[in-house]
């Protein structure tokens, strides 16, 4: 695709050639279908439209320096979608079907995978929808699983840099025993207003405390949180945050680097004790945190004194990226290579 300015792609939707689809009807998954249409045709009483019976995933494919295409821990995305499906009564997409459809949609759209040098990647969006009609609040009896892809620009255009976050005490993203651990659209609808207010006030994203006590750290918008102190990687244990695959991998890399890992409740006050902190997720890998401001109390937690990312965050980030790009050995077997 010579017409693209690969280095200046936004994080947005760009039409590609094909998407792949599979329907669940009469209790089983059908054949994989290839479509060149961006439109889906569903019943107006579909459960995804009324009762939020839908879920999605997000991962990336990379064109690597050795010319190969790699996707990172795809089986984990399949497992998380299966967990979400159990949570809101949808049929589980088997891992083999998930992986086969992902490989297929990437191959079909190979010309849209940005070159390595651009820092851009191909974003993969799997989507599972309750398409069967219901008027009462019940699960659908038909489902559509679809995957589309779109090229997206690098998160850090001017190099790895810090961002500031805003604690929003007057909003909850998810309830302690609600759907926060699942990747369902309703959680994101619940975050739109807080996210807009944080952006309008000049912050990278909103930062949530636990919904019950407003005491412990939950998540940073659409990313998990970690803090570093005393050679330890500390990340929240909570029943209302999404289990991030990037965070799970960072914990392993921290152990590989000889650090300790703690998964536990993190009281807001503890923020002032961290030497470094970051938001972790597919979008940025690590977005290092400069400061976190509690918008209601006015309290500021300055994490980076010089405004720059800390050395451990940078080391973790580089190690992670090098594994994703096949530059360093993939000792944990995280990558799927598409030739
Ligand atoms: C709410 C939320 N938390 C955390 C993450 C990070 O998860 P992952 O590392 O699997 O992208 C995401 C992104 O998917 C998210 O939407």
Would you kindly provide a written description of the structure presented here, covering whatever features stand out?
Belongs to the class-IV pyridoxal-phosphate-dependent aminotransferase family. Keywords: Amino-acid biosynthesis, Aminotransferase, Branched-chain amino acid biosynthesis, Pyridoxal phosphate, Transferase. Pfam families: Aminotran_4 (PF01063). It is an enzyme of class 2 (transferase). This protein has 339 residues and is of the alpha+beta class. Helices cover 21% and strands 29% of the residues. The protein has 2 domains: 6-152, Aminotransferase class 4, branched-chain amino acid transferase, N-terminal domain (D-amino Acid Aminotransferase, Chain A, domain 1, 2-Layer Sandwich), CATH 3.30.470; 163-323, D-amino Acid Aminotransferase, subunit A, domain 2 (D-amino Acid Aminotransferase, Chain A, domain 2), CATH 3.20.10.10. The strands form 2 sheets. Strands 1, 2, 3, 4, 5, 6, 7, 8 and 18 form a 9-stranded antiparallel β-sheet that branches. Strands 9, 10, 11, 12, 13, 14, 15, 16 and 17 form a 9-stranded mixed β-sheet that branches. The longest helix is centred in the first third of the chain and has 14 residues, at 74-87. Pyridoxal-5'-phosphate binds next to helix 6.
């Amino acid at each position: 695709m010579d017409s693209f300015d690969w280095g200046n792609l936004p994080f947005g939707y760009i039409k590609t050639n094909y998407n792949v689809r599979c329907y669940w009807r009469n209790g089983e998954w059908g054949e994989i279908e290839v479509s060149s249409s961006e439109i889906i045709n569903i019943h107006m009483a579909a459960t995804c439209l009324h009762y939020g019976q839908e879920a999605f995933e997000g991962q990336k494919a990379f064109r690597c320096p050795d010319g190969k295409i790699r996707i990172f821990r795809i089986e984990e995305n399949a497992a998380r979608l299966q967990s979400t499906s159990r949570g809101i009564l949808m049929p589980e997409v088997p891992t083999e079907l998930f992986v086969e459809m992902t490989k297929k949609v990437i191959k079909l759209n190979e010309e849209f995978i940005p070159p390595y040098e651009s820092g851009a990647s191909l974003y993969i969006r799997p989507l599972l929808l309750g398409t069967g009609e219901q008027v009462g609040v019940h699960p659908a009896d038909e489902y559509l699983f679809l995957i589309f892809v779109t090229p997206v620009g690098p998160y850090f255009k001017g190099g790895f840099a810090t961002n500031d976050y805003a604690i929003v005490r007057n909003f909850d993203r998810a309830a302690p025993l609600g759907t926060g651990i699942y990747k369902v659209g309703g959680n994101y609808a619940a975050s739109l207003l807080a996210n807009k207010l944080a952006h309008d006030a000049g912050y990278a994203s909103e930062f949530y405390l636990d919904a019950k006590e407003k005491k412990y750290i939950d998540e940073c918008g659409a990313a998990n949180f970690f803090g570093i102190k005393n050679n330890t990687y500390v990340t929240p244990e909570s029943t209302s945050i999404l289990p991030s695959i990037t965070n799970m991998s960072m914990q392993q890399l921290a152990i590989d680097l000889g650090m300790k890992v703690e998964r536990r409740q993190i009281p807001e006050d503890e923020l002032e004790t961290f030497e470094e902190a970051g938001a972790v997720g597919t979008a940025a890998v690590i977005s290092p945190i400069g400061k976190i401001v509690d918008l209601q109390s006015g309290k500021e937690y300055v994490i980076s004194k010089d405004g720059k990312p800390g050395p451990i965050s940078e080391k973790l980030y580089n190690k992670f990226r090098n594994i994703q790009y096949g530059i360093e050995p993939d000792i944990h077997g995280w990558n799927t290579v598409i030739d």
